[in-house]
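User: Working on a comparison across species. This one is ATP-dependent 6-phosphofructokinase from Chryseosolibacter indicus. Can you predict its structure so I can line it up against the others?
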Amino acid sequence: KKKVLVLTGGGDCPGLNAVIRGIAKRAKREKDWEVYGSIEAFNGVFSEPTEIIKLTSVSTGGIHVKGGTILKTTNKNSPVKYPVIQSDGTVQFVDRSDELIQKIKSLGFDAVINIGGDGSQKISKVLYEKGLPVIGVPKTIDNDLSATDLTFGFQTAVQIASDSFDKLVTTAESHHRVMIMEVMGRDAGWIALHTAIAGGAEVCLIPEIPYDINKIVKRINMRYKKGRGFVNIVISEGAKPKEGTITSTAGEKGSEHVRLGGVAYALSKQLKDAGCQAEIRETVLGHVQRGGSPIAFDRVLATLFGVKAFELVLEKGFGRMVAYKNNNITSVTLEEATKEYNFVSKDSYLVKAAKGLGVSFGD
Ligand code: F6P
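Assistant: Here's the predicted structure for ATP-dependent 6-phosphofructokinase from Chryseosolibacter indicus:
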């Protein structure tokens, strides 16, 4: 029988299990194929003995409704930049891709399906160029991959953020407070922007549009003057003030400040420093945005991605990544898939519409 190896890499995301099940169910229709899963990305292949499990239509039954990934995942241990601890305790990164390909082939696999975000697909590309028959499946709650109009997990993250936002609105209103809610998204503001529109935020701060703190204070004061007395702000973890308007570490990607949910707290301080009189409270949603069951839309998208990925294996369409384009499930080359990111354009209709609704971006 022919064998396909499936793995999930990078951060987890609602819908991963639906992809895995989609692959296993579709493969059941092909009598000469078997599906296997490597535990914790490629670690399952590297480990001795290997940690590789058989995936069948029965063993994956019903998993599409569950969050996380039954195959586990990691955003460390890239085979191209594998961390090896030296005798003196320091870490050196080595390229183990040739060894990995050799091992996958010696284990008798005819194809690999790598489900993961930008980092994982860059790895897929390297492995494909070195001769491994790979298919990529895009995954990220951030929705920042340009080769696909949508990624599964994004709408679920927006739903979770919107539900939380709604809850913050009622308490903001009761206490006449300014509520700041920080959401994920890395360098892209998609989650924040969609949540701001879905929830009806007064202010939405995203990485793509640096903000002027004074404009936000003005917007807040306007609301309080009108006697409505509460404001709900959504801020993306990568949002930053306009250069020169503020001296703060907030928004500097990778800074410890940001990792700790710093932008919400930094913004709170900046508002006070800029003369905001209202009481402010901060909420950092964090990883709840990535947890739990995917909403129906993401289950469907992820399942279709799984089915398509296996069909690409059958067609020998290696070196490609599954994509959702113009309401259609299709595929693109891994080259195209990893070329650029998908950021919010300040000239997009989405931003214009939000502004038309009265949302301030602080620009
Ligand atoms: O890329 C997905 C994401 O959830 C980002 O939105 C966030 O910045 C990051 O991953 C968090 O990573 P980790 O799970 O390693 O803390």
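For your comparison, note: The pocket of 6-O-phosphono-beta-D-fructofuranose is lined by residues 11, 75, 140-142, 184-186, 237, 290 (CB under 6 Å).

User: Helpful, thanks.
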